[in-house]
Structure formats: structure tokens, C-alpha cells
């Protein structure tokens, strides 16, 4: 059984997407049509997972696929 600790999806969003785009949480929230608080909870690991709604919004914004985010 694979007991590897996988990174939280929010960490991937923060480190691999937002930092790469030099984008603040508030700017990302505005672009995705969500509240800053919602995105902040995800990228700071205070949310257990990424919501289905957010996966769809990320895909629509061109940030991988909803399936990728849902599988994390």
C-alpha cells in the first residue's frame, strides 16, 4: 500500500500556479469569480480538498483539468 504523503491541492495551487504567475490570492479569486476567503482557505490548507466548483473554474481558466484537481 502506498503510504506516501501527497501535497495538499492548495499547496500545488499556491506554489505551482499562483507563484508561477506572480498572482496574489485576491487577484486569483477575482479572476475565478470566487471570494478571496474561499481561495485563501484552499491555498493555506484550511480546506480539506478543492471543491468541484473550484475544479471547474480552474479548468475554465486554463489551469489544467478539473479531473487533475479532483484527483489530488
Automatic annotation (TrEMBL):
User: Which GO terms of the molecular function aspect are on file?
Assistant: DNA binding
Note the InterPro entries from the entry: Cro/C1-type_HTH, Lambda_DNA-bd_dom_sf, Toxin_antidote_HigA
Q: Which SUPFAM superfamilies match?
A: lambda repressor-like DNA-binding domains
DNA-binding: is it a keyword of this entry? yes
Keywords (A to Z) from UniProt: DNA-binding
Keyword presence, DNA-binding: yes
Q: What is this protein called?
A: HTH cro/C1-type domain-containing protein
Q: Which organism is it from?
A: Nitrosomonas stercoris
Amino acid at each position: 500500500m502506498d503510504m506516501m504523503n501527497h501535497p495538499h491541492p492548495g499547496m500545488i495551487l499556491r506554489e505551482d500556479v499562483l507563484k508561477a504567475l506572480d498572482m496574489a490570492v485576491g487577484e486569483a479569486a477575482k479572476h475565478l469569480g470566487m471570494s478571496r476567503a474561499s481561495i485563501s482557505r484552499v491555498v493555506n490548507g484550511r480546506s480539506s480538498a478543492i471543491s468541484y466548483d473550484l475544479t471547474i473554474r480552474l479548468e475554465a481558466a486554463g489551469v489544467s483539468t478539473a479531473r487533475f484537481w479532483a484527483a489530488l
